[in-house]
């Protein structure tokens, strides 16, 4: 039976409720913009991060189980392939043993730690687990389970063995937020590995990457590897970003653009590394005028911090173990937890 | 008055959905787009209980989303409330048991949500540029983003809503919603 004694609710009621809640949302936005929400946000994040960590762990396990089940179907084919690979690796193994022996001898010869205490080698990376990702389709952030307590600070680059992931944009005690390079607000100074052309890699809505500000007239090709150039001082030099998959060149444009396929699979990020001993220079991404940045001289004008990093790491782990100047602590203030 | 179980568990469900959306759904991305689970829950709330209570759920669900994902606080709430306001208009004139109604709600709601979210981000960017705020400049272009992100997300959400229709039809008609506009 319908209750006709209830007070009738009109569209006005809904409108008033909408207005009040919208004002509350705007107030929250304003409080966040003025930084007054930060202590509360930090406290809430500390409360919720264990749940996120657990959910992420469960999702990872389920994902691995499904992957395993999917792989069962092609197991025979894989076994044959693996046998072939095994045979090849056996040969490779003999060669690598020789290299290892040689490497061991070289290590003994160097023996940095004992003979030269001034040249301290620090663990340059700490491994963080991705506990959350931006839940809408317009922004690209991830949340890590490491914070200031672990030596993470704003601006630190975040990488995987495959390449550049992004940089830390916000930090709480136990968590940090990473702005991915695929976010539209991200800009990374980059260089094409073979043609040595500079540009800026920006995020594209939809998760892609675009290398912009490539001067008209310079030649480069699809398939070139894109690396960080170190210009601007926000990222170490030589970290792989992606590979050029398409070139957008129009005579009416001032610059050429390249569509870049990221080397990192952002949809399945699980573990990342935070480079804790890289001191980013907070001067923002600089757009190099094409006339002043000729192809072939990519590192000219690069800040000293880039020069300490090894150059030209080709697809392997980026060289991020850098030597801090004497008497100066690396970013983060303390040796990286879990580092070597 | 029988409101059904969903009414009472909606807020915990929204919290779970936001957690799921943040930690699990990124693994279910299709061409860089993931479904908006919280939006779908709120739209289901509109279909069953009407816009009045759903506005509150939209506000709370948006807060959960922003807390779990680290996004700008309040933006998701505004976008979800916009979706509720737009889809709630036809609540008393259209029967939710008609196949096209939930599908239409998913399409219109997703567009309203996405457009509002994009719009608020663009306004924040403009304000940041004018007032010299220390904010990340997102440089989002409206139409390309609509084409690359919003349209696939609308499609994704609509497909999920179609799968949810059989469950939705099992929830009894809400007596409160029937009486409110007598």
Can you give a write-up of this model?
Chain A has 5 helices and 12 strands. By secondary structure, chain A is α+β, with helices and mostly antiparallel strands. In chain A, strands 1-2-5-4-3-12 form a 6-stranded antiparallel beta barrel. Among the domains of chain A are: 75-112, no CATH class; 126-287, Rod shape-determining protein MreC, domain 2 (Thrombin, subunit H, Beta Barrel). The model of chain A is unreliable at 1-6, 116-125 and 283-340 (pLDDT under 50). With 182 residues, chain B is mainly alpha-helical. Chain B has a single domain, classed as Orthogonal Bundle (Arp2/3 complex 21 kDa subunit ARPC3). Chain B contains 7 helices and no strands. The chains are: A alpha+beta (340), B mainly alpha (182). Chains A and B meet through α1, α2 and β1 of A and α1, α3, α4, α5 and α6 of B.
Key features of this structure:
heterodimer; A: 340 residues; alpha+beta; Thrombin, subunit H; 6-stranded antiparallel beta barrel; 5 helices; 12 strands; 30% helix; globular; disordered C terminus; B: 182 residues; mainly alpha; Arp2/3 complex 21 kDa subunit ARPC3; 7 helices; 72% helix
**Shape summary of chain B:** globular
Helix and strand string of chain B, N-terminal first? Answer: HHHHHHH
User: What is the CATH C-level name of chain B?
Assistant: Mainly Alpha
What is the CA-atom radius of gyration of chain A, in angstroms?
Answer: 25 Å
CATH topology of the domain at 126-287 in chain A: Thrombin, subunit H
CATH topology type of chain B: Arp2/3 complex 21 kDa subunit ARPC3
The run of helices and strands of chain A is HHHHEEEEEEEEEEEEH
CATH architecture label name of the domain at 126-287 in chain A: Beta Barrel
Binned, the helix content of chain A reads 25-40%
The oligomeric state is: heterodimer
